[in-house]
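Final report, section 2: Outcomes. Of the targets proposed, Coproporphyrinogen-III oxidase is the one most frequently requested by collaborating groups, and we therefore present its record in full.
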Amino acid sequence: MADPFTWDAALLRRYDTHGPRYSSYPTIYSFSDDFDEQAYQAALARSNADGRPLSLYVHIPFCRKACHYCACNKIATKNAKVVEPYISRLDREMVLIRPHLDTRREVAQLHWGGGTPSFLSLDQMSDLIDRLDARFGLSNSRHRDYAIEIDPREADVFTLRHLQALGFNRLSLGVQDLDPRVQRAINRIQPRILTEALLDEADRLGFRSLNLDLIYGLPLQTRDSFAATLEQVIAMAPARISVFNYAHMPERFTAQRHIRAEDLPGPEEKLAILRTTIAMLTGAGYVHIGMDHFARSNDSLAIAQREGTLQRNFQGYSSHAQCDLVGLGVSAISCVDDVYAQNHINLADYEAALDASHLPTARGIRLTFDDRIRRHAIEQLMCDMKLDLDELSETFGIDAPRYLEDALERLETPQRDGLVLIEGHRVVATPLGRLLIRHLAMAFDARLPLKPDDRFSRIV
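The predicted structure is given below as tokens.
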């Protein structure tokens, strides 16, 4: 099995520090509690002037059983009665947002995440889609990107047919690992046949893109066991594969306290798993988009990266650039105009705000001019694996090399180590640097603590 580039484990370990994932810049740790619903309403109103398409994210926090690795905002319950009141609150949130939005704007993107959106019954899924359509007007365009996260343990072929009828054209299935020993260790028993059956049906129904989520660094994993999982996943031939780095932070996430630290692969084994993953997936024809994401060369993510239109948001990489993101539901984050706004992360607080006819905005931030420049630079690096400083100068009316002199100085050591090339006014990540793209992006982060702490996950 040939490596796609020269591997330097010692260098990767040296740069394996804590750092943001940059699903936003500034990161959520810069959000302020002083940011309120009036500030969010003003941003929604300002966004109408640009008339950009809308992206709607709906957070469904419920799941029937907590997986031990999970770090999502979730509520583990078997009580299906919690759904109807929650859908009513979601509708109330839509009603309060709608007066501030020009709803003639196309909803080009829709994403249901969680938790587990497939916790909803088919009738409840229909009800929620109807409410979204009534409030915002959903799109019938063949270019729309309507995605939902699915737990193969809960969905079946009838679920997929129903989702297709509702307008969804992309699916993301949680797998994590196909090794039964690992599944038992993470409290997620999921026989391979469940995933295969859904993939076969989704392919038959003509869903545009299928994504499988995997996690490396889980308890009892080895390079050989994960290679066996990858062989099976490659045989299923999904269009996209996400391979996330497990961040063990039991002090922050209660569920992770069920995982024994001694069962986790050590640093060398974890790097070997990553090396195996990249070699096997690129060898099978997948393009390494960046960080955790791989896609077939004809998938919209790979095409967007080639065309320079790839975008990064709270759901990962997106092929739909230049949308205003409106987040609905507990803990959901919106990115509208020059503002990030996050809803209450506690369900009771979220409900109380809506019951009092207030938007459930808990915190947020309005970006400064400096923030917008650095966000653009970081997003270009994270998406394109390169940064054109001349384009940045033209976009913002600045002398970018001079303005970002501090960042370029911080890149001098990574440049000497062969992680980045600075050619004239172009910054280009090398193949090894792409694995450490978060570290390279940190050079442009003016809000980062001098020593990033364990609020952030490790980079590799």
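The chain has a mean pLDDT of 93.
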